[in-house]
């Protein structure tokens, strides 16, 4: 039994020695390294907190920038629509102006054509009067069987034209 007791006492002695060493180690750590260890943890916690705050700020800035870009994009769309509408309005005005100009030109061409027709009509009537007068003189000279002199010829033409004008 002595051997059993000596093993137990050796184990007990080892246990006491290990426990005492551990207690000394804890006290030494507490005295010399605890502030440094907790300082490292506190610094790490502060850095993590700072990084989180910085990330939140960046996120807020990014969100703000996204909102700003969306507003600029919306404004760009509005301006684009305005430019297109202005172009459409200008095209409509140009079309209207061109149509009005074409109407004016058409009216001028119609008036010119009417004047030309009227002039040709007068010319044709004058030629017809001359031809009718010549025929009338020829007919009259055949009827009378004599040649008319120039004065009688003119009088005959004038009388005949006067009668044609009355009819």
What integer value in Å does the Rg equal?
63 Å
Which spans of ≥5 residues are poorly predicted at pLDDT below 50? none
The average pLDDT score comes to: 84
Class by SSE composition: mainly alpha
Number of domains: 1
Q: What is the H-and-E element order?
A: HH
Q: Tell me the span between the first and last alpha carbons.
A: 175 Å
The biggest beta sheet reads: none
How many strands?
Answer: 0
Query: How much strand content do the residues show?
Result: under 5%
Q: How many separate helices? A: 2
Q: Report the helical percentage.
A: over 70%
Global geometry: rod-shaped
Describe the model.
- The longest helix has 143 residues.
- This protein has one domain.
- The protein is mostly helical and 167 residues long.
- Helix 1 packs across helix 2.
- It is 96% helix and 0% strand.
- InterPro entries: ATP_synth_B-like_membr_sf (IPR028987), ATP_synth_b/b'su_bac/chlpt (IPR002146), ATP_synth_F0_bsu_bac (IPR005864), ATP_synthase_B_chain (IPR050059).
- Belongs to the ATPase B chain family.
- One of its GO terms (molecular function) is proton-transporting ATPase activity, rotational mechanism.
- This is ATP synthase subunit b.
- It is found in: Cell membrane; Endomembrane system.
